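Support case: flavin mononucleotide complex. Customer-provided input:
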Amino acid sequence: MILFFSGTGNTRMVAEWLAAHLDETLYDVVRQSPATLATHDWTTEKRLGIVFPVYGWGPPPLFLEALAWFFESLHASEREQVGRLYCFALCTCGDDIGHTMQVLDRHLATFSVKPKAHVSVTLPETYVALPFFRLDTPKRCSEKEQVALEKLTRVSEQINSRQTFTDTFPGRMPWTKTYVLRPLFNKHLVKGRYFKVADSCTACGRCADTCPFGNIRMTDNHPTWGDRCAGCLACYHSCPQNAIRYLSSGHKGQYRPKSVLTRLKS
Ligand SMILES: Cc1cc2nc3c(=O)[nH]c(=O)nc-3n(C[C@H](O)[C@H](O)[C@H](O)COP(=O)(O)O)c2cc1C
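Agent response - structure generated as follows:
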């Protein structure tokens, strides 16, 4: 089984690709309720995959919270069963991941889950909220997609043969990014109340439907954001009017991972 979370869709695409190539089932830890697995027979599982995006050089805190709910919902015997499975962790990123996998491993250790394989896959950038952060050019997107596809093909074979390996890109100053910048990022730059809506908003409600955390409500024909925001920008990128603004997102354009999906699936 592959447990995953995706904001804008990059990670969903990768999770779907892996599920198809490893013959695994998918479970969206944020959108699905653990109750749907109440009668699941864990003895039939071959392995456990944990697939998520990197936000601010770490796993998104709300994703870690959802993972905790998932593991806590298991009975002691099921947890033991899951802890014995071969486990791989794979994150998608736009650039580099810092010490994301160390943060994940520490979190999973609480539930006696220990990934044997750690992988990062670089995909088109989705973060546009700060100055100097912008979307990749179409050319850069296709280069990243091509490299991602080759990497996924390679690592899925390694996972299939239950190898222990690490194939990640921590980047420069990974410790500082994850242990100094990440807490500041999460504390000060991830807030639902920073969203603004331009007059071109037609109140279609797509943002509310797209938000993985159900954090957007339509009130008086106007979207309003609550305080369970991961900053994933799924609402920003999916708005048909490009009417959503977040910090300095300005007119940096939107990203929809459709083209990648077709190619990654082929
Ligand atoms: C809030 C936020 C923070 C991000 N932080 C990082 C980061 O620290 N390092 C990185 O390489 N990419 C970062 N990215 C880019 C995403 O990790 C990347 O585009 C990922 O594939 C998005 O997956 P998703 O579409 O499933 O959300 C960030 C994106 C967002 C929205």
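The chain is about 40% helix and 15% strand.

Case will auto-close in a few days if no follow-up is received.
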